[in-house]
Design a protein that fits this description.
One of its GO terms (molecular function) is oxidoreductase activity, acting on paired donors, with incorporation or reduction of molecular oxygen. The protein is α/β, with parallel strands linked by helices. It has 14 helices and 17 strands. A 10-stranded parallel sheet has the order 13-12-11-6-5-2-1-17-14-16, with helices on both faces.
Length: 447
């Protein structure tokens, strides 16, 4: 049976994907940029538009690391504005489950679901580092081992709040003088390890019942969390074989939670570079990668592994001859390297020697993500191959250029997928759950 492909778009902000210095690039903050990218995604009949979020400016050697995410507006605020300039496109926000509270997050997401007519989605993420926690005056309060248990309870509590209103609770019966069917709406009580709250939830149930839940994570805990409670999981895999292995592993976990394979969509984050010929696309992709990995970015990437100041080294020269500091970290606010630094450095040196790579060339090779490069026809065929052979259910495209980075994909590749009969010609329903083919959420009883 031919599978239908699901597509989504990610507005990345200033980071190591975006080439913000490109003369064609627009603002990363102005609403017009968000609106252009969202409208392009909707024109291409994409399932949803996704915004990530950072809760603190990242630092490198004690200074703001402006080669990564800097100064991005708050996601739910932006998406609420986008609800007014789109009609079908799903609107997905990253909201942290470590430094927020269930009541407020549930209320804001229910509000977005109402404002958008049932298009809200929540990417549930966690944080454990004290550096980010300083912004909330609770740095280090949560052990890393507890972040998924808190996230799971956070999500469960949010679901209880959404379920505290029946779908038909609001009647607005002027004749009877009753706005709600039952005066006891919104009552909730949750007692658990991380949250002990009770009261009345003041947001009526949204059109989708629950917003669509998205989760990202490749760890065993992350995969299990997605299998138990998520509607979408996005991942990062560079080959068909890796994608198929991840797909099999996550999908097999669903049965233990009373779920079907189609209840969870697997959408890796990818990039796309098009050309009139394969050679032109490859040349353009190489230019983009060098723009993404600037000399400063290359040195910063190595410093995160070496744990040392490497600013004296030439990015276009050989790898540092000093050994890594196995105890010290120089970056804050981003995922820290957890493996064996010594073994990693030895592996990198061997690779650089084998291929005669400079520091910058090595970082370009090491940091490449799954990318579709080629003519529109070749890219359409490659996307379809991944989906039809169960390496994914679709993709979240991360353009390198804001806000026009999706234009060619929508204009040149999407029509070919529609021609193949593997992608919708139009939206079949008003809600994001309709786009993704998801059933209504299961109602959870308060605990």
């Amino acid at each position: 049976m031919t599978k239908q492909i699901h597509l989504a778009a990610h507005f990345p902000g200033v980071n190591n994907t975006t080439v913000w210095s490109d003369p064609r690039a627009g603002s990363q903050i102005d609403f017009a940029s968000f609106a252009h990218l969202a409208r392009t995604a909707e024109r291409g009949k994409f399932d949803f538009f996704f915004l990530a979020e950072g809760l603190r400016l990242r630092e490198m050697k004690g200074r703001i690391h402006d080669l990564d995410v800097v100064g991005r507006p708050e996601s739910l605020t932006v998406l609420s504005a986008l609800a007014a300039v789109t009609t079908h496109l799903g609107l997905a926000a990253t909201v942290n489950s470590t430094f927020n509270e269930p009541y407020e997050v549930a209320r804001r997401l229910a509000s977005l679901d109402h404002l958008s007519g049932g298009r809200a989605a929540w990417n549930v993420v966690t944080s454990y580092d004290a550096f980010t926690g300083e912004n909330f005056r609770r740095g280090g309060f949560l052990d890393e081992a507890d972040r998924y248990t808190r996230a799971a309870e956070f999500l469960h509590t949010a679901r209880e709040l959404w379920d505290s209103w029946a779908q038909d609770a609001v009647t607005a019966d002027a004749g009877a003088g009753a706005f709600v069917r039952d005066g006891d709406v919104g009552a909730f009580r949750h007692q658990g390890r991380h949250f002990d709250i009770s009261g009345r939830f003041n947001a009526p149930r949204g059109p989708q019942g629950h917003p669509v839940i998205i989760q990202a994570g490749d760890s065993d805990e992350g995969r299990e969390f997605a299998a138990s409670d998520a509607d979408v999981i996005f991942s990062r895999h560079s080959t068909l074989e890796e994608g198929r292995a991840f797909y099999r592993d996550v999908k097999r976990r669903l049965a233990a939670h009373g779920r079907r394979p189609e209840d969870l969509k697997i959408l890796p984050a990818v990039t796309c570079v098009l050309g009139d010929t394969e050679e032109e696309a490859a040349e353009r992709a190489a230019e983009i990668r060098r723009a993404q990995v600037s000399p400063q970015t290359a040195i910063a990437y190595l410093e995160g592994i070496w744990g040392r100041d490497l600013s004296a080294y030439d990015p276009d020269g050989p790898l540092p001859d000093v050994e890594p500091d196995l105890e010290v970290g120089v970056s804050k606010g981003r995922a820290q390297f957890r493996g064996d630094r010594g073994a990693t450095v030895a592996k990198w040196r061997a690779l650089a020697e084998e291929k005669r790579l400079s520091i910058r060339d090595l970082v370009i090779e090491l940091s490449a993500r799954q990318t579709f490069i080629g003519t529109p026809r070749a890219v359409a065929d490659a996307i379809d191959l991944f989906v039809q052979t169960d390496a994914s259910d679709g993709f979240i495209f991360v353009p390198h250029l804001t806000p026009t980075g999706l234009d060619d994909l929508v204009d040149k590749v999407v029509p070919l997928l529609q021609e193949k009969g593997v992608f919708r010609a139009d939206y079949s329903g008003p809600t994001l759950r309709d786009h993704l083919g998801l059933a209504a959420p299961r109602t959870r009883q308060p605990t």
